[in-house]
Design brief:
Elements lengths: L1 E2 L2 E2 L10 E5 L33 E2 L2 E2 L15 E5 L2 H9 L6 E5 L1
Antiparallel strand pairs: 1-2, 3-6, 4-5, 6-7
């Protein structure tokens, strides 16, 4: 997957069976697949030496745990799902969100 010209490295984490591209805060009757953010408006940059991780936006490395989802920000949120059970667990509240991959 290429986001803003940067190839996302998906090999370091859990194996993903699904990818979701989101532009709205809820799906499936109210499920927030992006999850809640630590901070409502801040986006903290993370410095890494040379190697790009899966958290990127416009080429900058971003701590996605504090990235908020906004329908008017002209950005697409990219999340990964380990399997179909993972989506169901988010829907029922057993898990807080999918795996945040990028915001671009």
């Amino acid at each position: 997957i290429i986001c803003d010209g940067v190839s996302l490295q998906l090999t370091g984490g859990p194996q993903l069976q699904g990818i979701a591209l989101l532009n709205i805060p809820s799906t499936h009757g109210g499920t927030n697949m992006w999850g809640d953010s630590k901070s409502k408006f801040s986006r903290k940059k993370v410095k890494k030496d040379g190697e790009l991780s899966s958290s990127s936006s416009l080429g900058d490395l971003i701590d996605l745990s504090s990235a908020s989802q906004d329908i008017g920000d002209k950005m697409i949120e990219v999340i990964g799902l380990e399997n179909c059970l993972h989506m169901g667990q988010v829907r029922t509240g057993l898990r807080s969100s999918g795996k945040r991959l990028a915001q671009c």
